[in-house]
């Protein structure tokens, strides 16, 4: 499957099934709780696993970026019409699904644009 501009990075060591699940949940919670779900997972699990820490940080930065994009596109939509904010939701859904698949495979998914901020 194509990563659509993002990168799948192999972690230093193979994550356990529980770590893979928590990485997947961090990305998935972003769809339903915006940045709060990934933030909670990061704060609770950051010391337990580098894989969970990286996955939750990627999800956190992505969701914050999507908030900014949605607001900007919403303002543009109000000013000139169109479906900008809806487009941001579709883009968010596509990239979160890709990130969930990569987390389930045990890879750290680096989102396009915001993924470079997480090191």
Give a written overview of the molecule.
With 119 residues, the protein is mainly alpha-helical. It has one domain (16-106). The chain has four helices and two strands; from the N terminus they run βααααβ. It has helices at residues 17-33, 36-45, 50-80, 84-104; strands spanning 7-9, 108-110. Strands 1-2 form a two-stranded antiparallel sheet. Helix 1 packs antiparallel against helix 4 and helix 3 (50-80) packs antiparallel against helix 4. It is elongated. The relative contact order is 0.23. The mean pLDDT is 87.
Tally of helical segments: 4
Uncertain regions spanning at least 5 consecutive residues: none
Q: Could you give the order of the helices and strands?
A: EHHHHE
CA-CA gap between termini = 24 Å
Q: Please report which band the strand proportion falls in: under 5%, 5-15%, 15-25%, 25-35%, 35-45% or over 45%.
A: 5-15%
Overall radius of gyration: 14 Å
Count of distinct strands: 2
Provide tags for this entry.
mainly alpha; 2 strands
What's a quick, concise take on this entry?
The chain has 119 residues and is mostly helical. It contains four helices and two strands. A two-stranded antiparallel sheet has the order 1-2.
Q: What topology does this entry show?
A:
Layout: E1 7-9, H1 17-33, H2 36-45, H3 50-80, H4 84-104, E2 108-110
Antiparallel strand pairs: 1-2
């Amino acid at each position: 499957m194509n990563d659509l501009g993002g990168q799948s990075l192999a972690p230093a060591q193979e994550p356990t099934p529980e770590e893979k699940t928590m990485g997947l949940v961090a990305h998935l919670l972003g769809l339903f709780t915006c940045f709060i779900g990934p933030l909670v997972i990061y704060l609770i699990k950051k010391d337990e696993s580098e894989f969970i820490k990286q996955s939750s940080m990627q999800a956190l930065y992505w969701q914050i970026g999507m908030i900014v994009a949605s607001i900007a596109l919403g303002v543009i939509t109000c000013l000139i019409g169109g479906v900008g904010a809806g487009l941001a939701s579709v883009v968010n859904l596509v990239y979160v699904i890709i990130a969930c698949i990569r987390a389930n495979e045990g890879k750290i998914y680096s989102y396009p644009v915001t993924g470079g901020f997480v090191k």
